[in-house]
Amino acid sequence: MRVLALLALALSGCLFSPNLGDGAIACSDDGACPPGQLCGSDDRCHKDALGVGGNGGSDAAVPCVPLSCGDLRKDCGPVDDGCGHTLDCGSCMAPATCGGSGTPGMCGCRAKSCGEQGKNCGAVADGCGVTVSCGACTAPNTCGGGGPANVCGCTPKTCASLGANCGTVPDGCGGTLSCGQAGGCPVGQTCGGGGTANVCAVGVCSPTNCAAQGKNCGDISNGCSSTIQCGSCTAPQTCGGGGAANVCGCTPKTCSALGQSCGMAADGCGHMIDCGACAWPQSCGGGGETTACGCTPTTCAAQAKDCGRMPDGCNGVVSCGGGCSGNRVCVANVCTKKGTCTPFADCAAAGKSCGVISDGCADILRCGACTGSMKCVNNVCQ
Question: 218-235 pLDDT, tens per residue?
Answer without folding.
Answer: 999 999 999 999 999 999
